[in-house]
Every structure is written in C-alpha cells, then in structure tokens.
C-alpha cells in the first residue's frame, strides 16, 4: 500500500476546517460595511485590510471558502451519487438502461457549462442554490462514464460470474461485488470534480451568474477587486491566492489518492520504462567471463518501499552463457518471473530493485538510463511470454507486428521489414508464411501465435532470450514443437536462453543448467543432468518427487505453501516444509555453498543428503 499524501491532506483539511469553523472563530461580520474605512490597509482589527465597502477581507475570505467549498462539495457529491448509479446500472444491465443512463449523458456533454449555467440561472435566478444543481449536472457525465467504464472492465471477470453462479441478484452483484471494485476511480473523480467545481463556481460568481452579493465568495471578491486594482492591489491578491492554494492542494490530493487507490501503483504518472528504478547506489560490476551473455550478481528486489523489508528476491546471482539454456524452476510464487524480469531491467510496477548488478555486454542493466535500456530491449535481448494471445496486438496483422519490431531498431523500409517478417515466420516453422503474415492473431492457433511471438523476439538477432513459461498455455504436442524450435534457434544463433518454468519435464528437455528458486532465493544450481540424478537440496528433491512421471511412483505433493515476501522464515526459507530440517536450519539462514564444479546448494546438510 502506498503512503497517504499527508501534505495535501493536511492542507485541504486546514482549508475545510477554517471554512467549517467560520461562525465560531470570532471573525468580523463578512457583510458589515464600514464605508469610512473603505480600501483601508491591514490593521490589528482587519489583518488583511478592508474592501471597497469597508468589509473585513479576512472574514470574507474564510466565509468565501465556506461558500465555494460548500457549493463545490455538494455539487460533486450529488453528481457522484447519481452518476455512479447511472454508470453501474447502464454498464451492468445494458440494453435500454444503458441507452437511457449513459447515452443521455452525451447530450449533457454537448452543452458548454457556461451555456448550461446561463440557461438554468435564467430559469431559476442566480444564487448558491442554483449553482449546486448546475455544477452537479456539469459533472454528472464524468461520474457516469468513469463508473460505466469501470463496470465494463470488471463485469466479465470470474468473480462476477462466480456471484451469478451462486444465485446472487443484480442489485447485490452491483453493490457488493462491482461497486467496491470501481470505488477507487470514482473517489478520485470526486476529488477532481470538487477541485474543478471550486474554480467553476468562482468563475460563474465572477460573471454574476453565481453567488449573489453581498454574500462572500472568492469569485465575487475577485470581480470586485478588479475595479479597485490600482488603489488596493492586495484585494485582488488574497482571493486569487486562496483559490490557487486550494486548487493546488486539492489537485495534489487527487494525485495522491490516485497513487494510493490505483492497484498498479507504479503505473501512474511514469511511463513503462521510467518505472524502472534502482534505489541502491550503482555498483561497478566485476567483468564477466568471456562468452557470458548475462551476468547477475546479488540481485535483490523489494515489493513496495525497500524500507518495508518485503523482499521478493534476495541476493540472487546467476549467469547465462552463449548457446546455453539456464532454466529457472520453482513453484508458483517463488519469484522466478520477478527475478528474471528485474534482471533485464523490466521491473514490474510496485517493485524496486534494491541491490545487485545485471551485466550484459559490459553494461549494468540495473543502472542504465531508460532510453539506453529501450535500445537493448527487443534488439540485444528479447522476451517471450506465457500467453501469446494477450502479448500480440489483436488489431494488427502478425506480419506487420513483426515488421514493426524490426523497424523499431533498424532503419529499413516497411516493405523490406515485411519481407523479413515473412522469412522469420518461415524460419519458425509457420506453413504458408506469406498468407499467415496477413492474418490477425485471433485467426491463428495458440501454437502458431507462440511461433509468431518467437519470430518477433528473434527478429533483430538477440544475444539473450528470456522465455517466461512460453509453453504452459500449449498442449503437449505443440509444447514439444515449440521447445524444439527454441533449442534449434539457440544452437544455430548461439543466443543465451533464460527459461522460466515450473515444469521439470520441460527443464529436462531444454535446459543445460538449472537454478532452483524458492521464496526469492536460489536454493540449488547446477547442470541439468546432475541436478536430476543427484539433487543436493531437499527442495529440489521434493520438486522432483512431485513431478508426474510416465512410469515409476505416483507424484508426491509438497506439504505447505511458498512463504510470501515480508513473511519469510528467519532461517532456511524451506525449513518449515522440509523433512530434513534440524534446529540450525530454523535459526540460521544458510549461505549458498559451492559443492562442486558448477554446482551450489543452500542446504547445510547437502553432503549427507
Ligand atoms: N508487481 C508486483 N507487486 C507486488 N508483488 C508482486 C509483484 N509481482 C510479483 N509479486 C509477488 O512476488 C512473489 C513472486 O512472484 P513471481 O510472479 O515472481 O512468482 P513466480 O515464481 O514467477 O510465480 P508463477 O510461476 O505463478 O508466475 C509473489 O509473492 C508475488 O505475489
């Protein structure tokens, strides 16, 4: 959870408190005139001076806040309640309800706010009671649209279907299931609308369409001060300052709220690449051995603020050589993806790299500026994901997507890139590549889509390919074909392959070396054949026993679950689930022992296993 934006909260809180407390803090009467002292400067009795009718400026300013904020909050609250209901019903019930609730808002949007205000003021006469409905109507469509868009995005989720299957009624689903999921954006919209309503109220009052004199309002104060600007310029300054400070504080509060309420915290104001951030001081990496494509040392990744101590990856070191596949294997939640993504600088939202280096071609990927990292991604290093269905853009033909990947890094014409795309499709074993290049992703099978992803990844001849469970979504036959394809690519081009999987049979088929990951640590590492034949960590042994085999004993599950970051055991992370655990395992965190050429184990009992 992100920290609350305390400074804007305090600033807005003080402004609201002052406005609420106006009747009880002994202010002068805001409408009492003292014409003898008109335009008098600041004095003990009138700290901010007196206006053109001798009224106390401080009092009018604070009472004006009461008027402006009162109108703005009331209008935003009315718009929020009605708009959210309309969006909820329109988005969930659809049909005529959608037409009435959501499309009618398009009609409101056609009216400029000023025109709408003029219309209503002509009908109802000016005053605060007119301004509230006017502003509520102005802000209604924004709430309806935010709620409607929110409902559309969550209504297809399984948890909504699950409620339907349980027999829950529409009202219950809308209020108990959908509303809490869209409450964040609606709340943010509320603070935005309230801030903007303060400005609009002042503007309308300034134009004589809002609060009626002599009632205090910032807009009226600005309007009146305009006429005496030369004799008493400060009279213009105070309401402008109040308006500016209030709007700045409210906008900062909106930003802060959005940060706190957005479930993808780092996705907010930063671009994808600027999310990448290393908080530890850069370290000069030691030179890697020749032939090393990626050399990772001491990588540590924290979830949220590193000071909170929620480490999802702890002190991980590994390397990938040319023409070699390193498989990262472990149960779900062990940190494989986070570690691999962070190692190539693609740090996901809400996560910080708090230590370590990741060197490729002499550059530390964890310290590279975003622009330089961008140059390497898709060129010197590429990535393929588990679900090609969601990784390919559904509205572009696959050939042009591959061509774009080429043109992002090479100055070639569209025609030349398209020709190369067809060659790449042929190379990854897609039959009739000329025709397939013109297909949209949904026109291809899952296996073909994954081949397209691979073609795109290798389009610029990368030295490192990171494959995050690339075969999990495919059936066994296609899985074998894709693994063969990756193996032949690696053989032919000499690229290094970092392969993330939870499947030991896949590891056996593709990997030269294996790193076994658990709770954000590498527990064992070594050549694949040796790890399979002679595991030297109880977790590796348990994983091997849990893998399905064609012949031999039935798979055994591993009792217990992977600990979550922030709640890791003090000693060996696997100790609570380990049948070989002794007292020391529970108390002391073991180091990674060097147990032979290319082999390492984080078990103090490795020798006796
Ligand atoms: N962006 C994120 N924000 C917060 N926590 C995260 C984030 N990404 C991963 N985590 C947490 O980090 C831990 C490791 O997650 P990760 O996805 O790396 O595991 P994994 O081994 O790849 O699992 P799977 O095989 O299911 O993909 C999990 O506890 C997960 O909840």
TrEMBL record:
Q: Provide the protein's localization.
A: Cell inner membrane; Cell membrane
**Keywords, alphabetical:** ATP-binding, Cell membrane, Membrane, Nucleotide-binding, Transmembrane, Transmembrane helix, Transport
Q: Which GO terms describe its cellular component?
A: plasma membrane
Q: What residue ranges are annotated as transmembrane?
A: 69-93, 105-125, 131-154, 178-200, 206-225, 232-253
Q: Which InterPro entries match?
A: AAA+_ATPase, ABC_Ni/Peptide_Import, ABC_transporter-like_ATP-bd, ABC_transporter-like_CS, MetI-like, MetI-like_sf, Oligopep_ABC_C, P-loop_NTPase
Location, primary (coarse class): membrane
- Leader sequence range is none
Q: Which SUPFAM superfamilies match?
A: MetI-like, P-loop containing nucleoside triphosphate hydrolases
Q: Which CDD domains match?
A: ABC_NikE_OppD_transporters (cd03257), TM_PBP2 (cd06261)
Q: What is this protein called?
A: Peptide ABC transporter permease
The species is Skermanella aerolata
